[in-house]
Amino acid sequence: MQILITGSSGHLGEALVRTLRSGAHRVAGLDRTPSAFTTHVGSIVDRAFVRRCMTGVDAVIHAATLHKPHVATHTRQDFVDVNVTGTLNLLEEAVAAGVSSFVFTSTTSTFGRALMPPPDAPAVWVTEDLRPVPKNIYGVTKVAAEDLCELHHRLHGLACVVLRTSRFFPEPDDNLAVRGAYDDANAKANEFLYRRVELQDVVDAHLLAIEKAPSIGFARYIVSATSPFRADDLIDLRRDAPSVVARYVPAYVEEYARRGWKMLPSIERVYVNERARRELGWRPRYDFQRIVDGLSTGEGTRSALAQAVGSKGYHDTAFDDGPYPVS
Question: In the 8-state DSSP scheme, what is residue 192?
Answer without folding.
Answer: T
